[in-house]
Design brief:
about 400 residues, 13 strands, three-stranded mixed beta sheet
């Protein structure tokens, strides 16, 4: 008789290795301090970079959209699911990103799947950084294109791969803008120059850069002054933007093509009106002021300096993503548990998300954290590190 014994066995192995983790169920909304099992803890792992999940303009926009359009959209985008609010979001998002057009998907993950699977065929090649996000990897797996992987941010290897790819019809270089596990920034100017020299497209996943880098959070392309030289800017609406969804920004012909070819777009019901409206409100909040982004970076620099002063290894971090590298998976999760005992939630991340010997507790600093919050976290880090013999 069929049974799930193999799944039970694999889960037991995860427990033995210290890598098993049940879901954490929170009792409060996303913020800097959250309630877990009736206890108030400092949240240091949220992607809510600018604190927009609780912004009054986003909540009001969502409520108004429900009153005007209802709770759901009722269909896929290509039938009756493109409401005026969806069109408005895409127009303002494109203007924000400095492109002709933008197309919104249900998530950043499905955006990468939809775009890559639609554009790449058996006569094409995709050249990808080895540390690109899982959604990029899975998007590439859905294609019949040839694949080349270059060592992380290694421009010599990228150029070698481009030289070897002259015979392909399309060459697409894919990189994260900010790498989610290490918090380092892609060398986008060098990537663009190489792609232009070898007649290749540039595809950037801006998930952790939108709302973080560039003027008013426009992203890594704007940060490096490369507007008009990056062919595809993919991003998420669920991190700094504070809601949920994904998008690709580029030329109008790209949007028109994806509307007809991208399977996640074609076969998924569109965003609810409340989601689309609150995403639009977030874009408008970003365009008003750089104040939140300035506070985010001041907090990140302060906290990173404090963590390093304690003697912890923060790896290649240069953004508000600040990992504390531990190494062993079991020790990593033990360190995360000790921090929670101290009142700080910071997620341990281990294999297979990162290499087996590169386990880390990943801190994400936000604009909502106060200096008192950050000092509280640094004190907790010190005590937990001493208990574990890391300091």
């Amino acid at each position: 008789m069929a049974n799930w014994q193999s799944l039970h066995d694999e889960l037991e192995q995860l427990k033995k290795e210290g890598r098993y983790r049940p879901l954490t169920v929170w009792d409060s909304s996303s913020g800097t301090w959250m309630t877990l099992n009736g206890r108030r803890v400092l949240q240091m792992s949220s992607n809510n970079y600018l604190g927009l999940t609780e912004h009054p303009e986003l909540k009001e926009a969502a409520e108004q959209a429900i009153r005007e359009y209802g709770a759901g959209s009722g269909s896929v985008r290509t039938i009756t699911g493109t409401l005026r609010i969806h069109d408005e979001l895409e127009r303002e998002l494109a203007a924000f990103k400095g492109t002709e057009a933008a197309l919104v998907f249900q998530s950043g993950f499905t955006t990468n799947q939809g775009v890559l699977a639609s554009l790449l065929g058996p006569d094409d090649v995709v050249i990808s950084d080895e540390l690109n996000h899982a959604s990029i990897i899975d998007g590439i797996r859905l294609t019949k294109a040839s694949r080349k992987i270059y060592a992380h941010k290694d421009m010599d290897q990228l150029e070698a791969a481009l030289k070897q790819s002259a015979g392909f019809q399309k060459r697409i270089v894919v990189t994260d803008g900010v790498f989610s596990m290490d918090g380092d920034i892609a060398p986008l100017p060098a990537i663009v120059e190489l792609a232009e020299a070898y007649d290749a497209f540039v595809y950037v996943d801006d998930a952790h850069a939108s709302g973080v880098l560039g003027k008013n959070g426009k992203g890594i392309t704007d940060h490096f002054g490369l507007n008009g030289r990056v062919h595809m800017q993919v991003g998420t609406l669920s991190k700094a933007v504070g809601v949920v969804g994904g998008y690709v920004a580029g030329e109008q012909v790209l949007k028109d093509y994806l509307i007809h070819k991208a399977r996640p777009f074609l076969f998924s019901t569109s965003q609810t009106p409340a989601v689309a409206a609150s995403c639009l409100a977030a874009i408008r909040v970003l365009q008003k002021s750089d104040q939140l982004i300035g506070r985010l970076w001041a907090n990140a620099d302060y906290f990173r300096s404090g963590v390093q002063s304690l003697g912890f290894d923060t790896g290649a971090s240069e953004t508000p993503i600040i990992p504390v590298i531990v190494g062993d998976p079991a020790k990593t999760m033990q360190f995360s548990d000790l921090l929670l005992e101290e009142g700080v939630f910071a997620q341990g991340i281990v294999y297979p998300t990162v290499a087996m010997d590169k386990g880390r507790v990943r801190f994400i600093v936000t604009a909502g954290h106060t200096r008192q919050d950050l000092d509280f976290a640094l004190d907790a880090l010190k005590r937990a590190g001493q208990k574990l013999g890391m300091l």
